[in-house]
Fold this protein.
Amino acid sequence: MLGVNVLARRALYSSLRSSAQPRLATQTRFIHVSSPVMKKKQQNVDFDSLFDDIEIVDESLPKNTKQSEAKTKAKGKSQAGAQPAPTSSGRTRQATKLSVEDRKTKFDSIAEFVKARTARNLTQTRPAVRDSAWLQMLQLATSEEQLKHIVELMPGWKESSGGRAFTSTYSEAFARRCHELGCPLLALQVFGDYARYNLNLTLPAARQLLHSLHTQPIDKLMTASALFGLYSLPAAAQDYVSCAIIVDACLRHSSDDSNRIAEALLPHLRQLQATTKIDTEDMDHREIVWVQTAMESVEKTLKERQSGAKQTNETAHLSGAASSTPQPTASA
C-alpha cells in the first residue's frame, strides 16, 4: 500500500506534467461543461432498447432548492406547451414516479437480464444488452449495494458484447451516481482498474470524481488526480475546475505534503483564473458551481493564512521590542 507521501509526489508530478511554468494565454478560455441535470446530448445516448418506455424520476435524493429555483426563474414561460422528449426509437418518454418496491423490482429485472448475457454467466445471447440497460440500472439504484451489483456485472460485458466499450455518457453517469449515493471510493476503485472494468475516465467524470473525493482523506484525492495521466486527460494543472478543487482540498488538509502541492499549483490556478471565463449566474452546470465554491474557499483560506502570519509577525515584533527595553533598577 503506497503511503500518502508517495501518492502526493506522484500526483504532484502528474498534475504538473507539461505545465512546468504557467503559459501566457493568447485568448480567453471557456469551461467546457457537461450537460445540465437530466439533459444528455441526444447523439451520445442510446435509449432505443427494451427499457426506454419510461424515464425514472429519482425521488430518493434530496432536492437542491437553490438550483431548482434558479432553473425555474430562468425557464420562465418557455416551458409552456413543451412536449415530452421522444426516444431514439420515436416513442415518447413519459416521466414516471416509481414506488420503492417497483423501483427495486425494475432494477432486479434489468440486472437479471444483463447477468444472463454477460460472459461469466452467459446463458442467453438475444436480445443483446444495450447501453441504455446500464444507464437504467444506474438511475434505478438507490444504495451502494445496488451500485456494487452493477460493478460486478461490468467486467463480463466487453467479451459478451463483441468488444463494445462503455459510453462516455455511462462513465459520467456512473461517477455522478456514486457521488449521489455516497460511495465515491467505489468510483475510484472502478476507474482505477481499467483492465478489469473497461470504463474510460472522461474529463467530466474526472472532475466529478475529484469533487466527490475532496472531503475524503487527501491520499484518495491524490490517487484520483494521478489518473489524469493514465487516461491521457489534460493535466489537472491545465484544467480550471480540477485545479481549483485540488488546491482547495490541499489547503484545507494543511499537511506538509498537501501544502507543497497547493503552493506548486497556485501559479497555474491564478493563470487559469485570469484566462478562463465562467458565467457566475449559471446554476445549471455543476462544474461552474464547483469551481466558484472551490475558489471562494481558496481565497478565504489564503486570506486567513496571510492575516495569521501578519498577526504572528506583529506579536513577535512587539515581544522582541519589549524584551530589548531596559528594565528599571531597584532603588537602594
Notes: The two ends are 72 Å apart (CA to CA). The longest strand covers residues 54-56.
